[in-house]
Amino acid sequence: MKNSILTSITAYFLFSFSANAQKVFTSDVNNFWKAYDKIVQTNDTVLQYKYLNDDYLSKGTEGLKLIREARNYTDKDYINAINSYPKFWNSVRKNTLKSKKLSKKLNSGIEKLQLIYPELKPANIYFTIGALRTNGTIKNGNVLIGSEFAMADKNTVTDEFAEDVRSARRLFFDSEPIKHLVLMNVHEFVHTQQKLPLNNLLSNVIYEGIAEFVSVKAMNVPSVAPAIEYGKQNNEKIRARFEQEMFTLNNLYKWLWGDSPNEFGVRDLGYYIGYQMAENYYNQAENKQNAIKELIELDYVNEAIIEDYVTKSNYFSKSLEELQKDYENSRPTVIGIKQFNNYSKNVDPKTKEITILFSEPLNGFNTGTDYGELGEAAFPKNTIKKSQWSADNKSWTIEVELKPNRKYQLIITSNFRNTTNYPLKNYLIEFETSN
Question: Which first-to-last residue range defines the signal peptide (predicted)?
Answer without folding.
Answer: 1-21
